[in-house]
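User: Please predict structures.

Assistant: First:
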Amino acid sequence: MKILSIESASVTASCAVSQGEEILGEYTLNHKKTHSEKLMPLIEDLMKDLQLKISDMDYIAISRGPGSYTGLRIGAAIGKSMAYAGGMEIISVPTLQSLAANIYHTDKLIVPVMDARGGRIYTGIYKWEKGMCTEVKEQFPSHIDELLEMLKDYQEPIIFNGDGSVNYREKIQDKLKEKAVFAPERFNYLSAATLASIAYTMALRGETVKAKDFKPEYLRMSQAERTKK
């Protein structure tokens, strides 16, 4: 099973091709949100270097959100057009689950935190069970204070990752004390290779959607929508 995975929910522009559990190649840039300029050339270069065509893929996996409105729309447009052209279905991967899966096989709870500014965040609660990163609480929008109040009720240690874990580290430490652990910096970035690992297990379970039915999951209104409202 070959999967082209596309990650565009944050500053990271990333693509990967996997075959089963093996990553054949991954190209990633963590530099500005110019996905409209960078993402498609990354995909084209990766496919060329692997000597593969879109028609060789069985599925397209897309980070469905939440995250950057522009980034998610670009990823969706590219992924859906490729899926239409290749006559294949899409694997719609929750962005926070993909971020959580950067932390591999820990016995701690994993809480990824994406910063949406002004104290607003996107988050979820995950843990590893039987070799899979599973949901304890699916991804949801919150405020950092609300999240920390919720996590006070959990007894087990918690490992945080994502840019929100960096930006709110002091607040998290003050509230949760020694219960809070922080992932190394390299695990704070979204990755198409990690997305691919989640996508593969989803495909095995038949969790795919037709290209026409795929929609990004924003979880929150855009700034323009909030201003208009």
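Second:
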Amino acid sequence: MIRVLFVCLGNICRSPMAEAVFRSKVKEAGLEDRIAADSAGTGSWHVGQPPHEGTRRILQRNGIDYAGIRARQTTAADFESFDYIIAMDSSNIDNLRVLPGSGQEHRAVLKKLLDFVPPSGRSDVPDSYYTGNFEEVFELVSAGCDNLLAFIREQESI
């Protein structure tokens, strides 16, 4: 099983949106028995909470299931449990790199989601918790997830 972890700051807006969108795309491709997704936040403020109302609303509007998604905090063990750790922004990458144990050799590929999107003038997915622009974030996340899935399929020959 190929495991993908999406990471943002609080794990209630961007990363759970990416988890749900990616799961939907994986299911649509018939690969749910080969690829699994999860999400986490670098902060602990929202642990146990469901996705933000704005995230839930945009996912519902697009017919994407988010059942069972609850906020959790990243741990050093994630670097061993996941094959791909996909952050929403540069700050998330910085926070992941200073996690105890994260500097050790690990198998996880660490990238930003927009690394998989052709140059668009953006390198970070904006934080909809602060901007309120869930539509823009959804569009960026959807494009990133399409290209990430294509990348994984190529890398893993599936």
